[in-house]
Amino acid sequence: MTCQEVNDYLDRTSPADASGLPEVLRKHLDGCECCQRLWELLSRRQRAGQIPEPVRSRIEQDLLSSLEPVKPLPNPGRLTLWFLLVFGGSAALFAGLLAASNAPGVTTFSFAVFAGVIGVIAVWLSVTLSREMVPGEIWRLSRVATHAVAVVGLFGAAALVFPWRVDEPFVQGAWKCFKAGFVLSLPAAVLLLLLLRRGVLFSPRFACAGAGFLAGLVGLVTLHFSCPTIGAAHITLGHLMIPATGAAIGFAAGHLARGRWSENGAGPAVSS
After folding, report:
1. pTM for the complete prediction?
2. Residue 243: HSE in the Cβ half-sphere, 13 Å Cα cutoff
3. Which residues, 6 or more positions from 221, have their beta carbon under 8 angstroms from its beta carbon?
4. pLDDT tens digit string along 34-56?
5. How far is CA 37 from the centre of its chain?
6. pLDDT (0 to 100) of residue 126
7. pLDDT band at 102 (very low <50, low <70, confident <90, very high)
8. Which residue of 11, 59, 201, 232 is 20 to 30 Å from 128, comparing CA positions?
9. Averaged over 65-84, what is the pLDDT?
10. CA-closest candidate to residue 81, choices 130, 149, 137
11. Tell me, what's the pLDDT at 213?
């Protein structure tokens, strides 16, 4: 038996001791100092990698005692529907309540187009959030680009469909709308975060930012159907800053909580 044949054999097998070696190989090791050193080196490495049985049993017991039952995570399509239901239900409730007492003319082409843009962005964010919850989903765009599409689409649509004019008092009116819309978005934000915690978030910052943005759209929709001011400047500062602020707060909260997210209940889940 040649040294090369011994080397090939040891590459393919890992016998626990010399008794497991073929007779012809053991004879070669007795007469070849180089192959004998190779065998001793491999034997030491194998023995070093073995875990004593008491230690192995203790590790298995610790792991088994820490396991907890989990519920299967719904598929991404159903998760998307849940996010849309939270957004649509909250927006319809608040818009219906406020528009009943203060209903401006909302039948113009600009209002209809902008409402459609909000709906498309809500669907886009809901799909994004559902993918954040399921491990292993393939992202065609980066997370930054995905959220940038929503921001650019929203602000771009407002700049194009509404007339640019400044109504007096501009700052006070914008601040009043912002406060009202932001408060109305808080219930949806709570519901969205509770829904997110059912999944496994590899990027809590962007997941929470998306939830904050989607919750802010609830306040935006409410103002869209109740605010009588239709100038692009007012809408940009008083209305669109609601989802933008929600996204910023969500990103910061996700950054602070990312180390504790799994410890506080966002445990393993699987997609069914």
Report:
1. 0.66
2. 29
3. 91, 94, 95, 115, 118
4. 877 777 777 765 555 556 667 67
5. 52
6. 92
7. very low
8. 232
9. 81
10. 130
11. 94
CB-CB neighbours of 97 under 10 Å: 12
Cα-based distances in Å from 26 to 17, 22, 35:
11, 6, 10
CA–CA dist 192, 82 (Å, integer): 9
By the 10 Å C-beta count (0-12 exposed, 13-18 middle, 19+ buried), 103 is classed as exposed
The Cβ of residue 190 has, within 10 Å, a number of other Cβ atoms equal to 13
* Residue 2 CB burial class (10 angstroms; 0-12, 13-18, ≥19): exposed
* Residue-wise pLDDT tens digits, 196-227: 888 777 788 888 999 999 999 999 988 888 88
Give me the chain's average pLDDT, please: 78
DSSP conformation letters of the chain: --HHHHHHHHHH---SSGGGS-HHHHHHHHH-HHHHHHHHHHHHHHHHHPPPHHHHHHHHHHHHHH----PPBPPHHHHHHHHHHHHHHHHHHHHHHHHHHS-----SHHHHHHHHHHHHHHHHHHHHHHHHHSTTPPPSS-HHHHHHHHHHHHHHHHHHHS----PSSHHHHHHHHHHHHHHHHHHHHHHHHHHHTTS--S-HHHHHHHHHHHHHHHHHHHHHTT-----HHHIIIIIIHHHHHHHHHHHHHHHHHTTTTTTTT-----B-
